[in-house]
Design goal:
With 357 residues, the protein is of the alpha+beta class. It is built from five helices and 21 strands. It has two domains: 145 residues, Cupredoxins -  blue copper proteins (Immunoglobulin-like); 203 residues, Cupredoxins -  blue copper proteins (Immunoglobulin-like), CATH 2.60.40.420. 17% of the residues lie in helices and 38% in strands. The longest helix is centred in the C-terminal third of the chain and has 21 residues. The N terminus and C terminus are likely disordered. The structure holds copper (II) ion (CU). It comes from Setaria viridis (Green bristlegrass).
Length: 357
Amino acid sequence: MAATAAIVFFSAMALSVGASVVEHTFVVSQVNMTHLCKDTLVTVVNGQLPGPATEVTEGDSVTVHVVNKSPYNITIHWHGVKQWLNCWADGVPMVTQRPILPNHNFTYRFNVVGQEGTLWWHAHVPFLRATLHGALIIRPRHGAISYPFPKPDMEVPIIIGDWWQLDLPQVDQSMKNGSFDFFASGSTINGKLGDLFNCSGVPEGGYVLDFVPGKTYLLRVINAGLFSEFYLKIAGHNFTVVAADANYVSPYTTDVIAIAPGETVDALVVANATPGRYYIVALPNQAPGPDTQTPEFTTRGMVQYRVNHSSITNGAAALRSRRGVKQEENDIGPSGDVAHNFKKISQHLFFFTGNLV
Ligand SMILES: [Cu+2]
């Protein structure tokens, strides 16, 4: 009886007015990406790193067709989705399903009920999640007005990750055999390594986020790195943390977000600093050998204020992102306030890490 009642209850929730079906196709394949002067064969969804964001409204049904064109057995796990009555869509190989073999397809169908906030999806084949991942954003069914915090003007996914130049399934196998001496080659924000990484003196492009003065931004932060906790900071700005792992929390203000692998944190940032350019930095607490206590692999991008935002087109933003922060600095000239801000946050982050180890 109780089970029947539960089925009726959850079915009613899933089929309530306004619910719709969100349908995507994920084509898993290998592509060549070049960073740090090296071509690396990377397994990704739809040719993107990070993969496509899946955006739903609470109560929606999700259908994702996975087409596996990679040489690996794959499953996709919907990290944090409670999967009421949908356990066979949870994407755990040899538990809820057989892996999707190369050149085979599988369709995931599940309802997103009773949850809202930021989650993510990733491959549940160990270590391929480093490149097979993306955001899963669940918005309230009554719209942004029902957020238990001031309605943001803009929502921005911030996916922190690793850049690996090793064969990840091989690394996984080696670790199972007891060898742990493997390290990523860098860290990323939304797939960009940033200008602290360079190859033969040519800096990597960095993530660029435009701020309009006075506006409030909801950053949906995801740590998609394999092993390391990260510390995220924007020079000259504070975060108001409002949610973690798709649970609202009592809001608190901080100038640094600590986020563990697999975790998500939603935080509001108000563009209330003096208009200019400010570094956004993610520092992993696990450093590569031989000295694993010295923080390295910091990835940094740029928050830049746009006083006249209407003149900025998406095309210009994309071009700016591709060319990288460093190139733009070369175009515009050095920015004294940026250097000053970075000096400040370096000291703060290193101090914070030192207290943890
Ligand atoms: Cu997960």
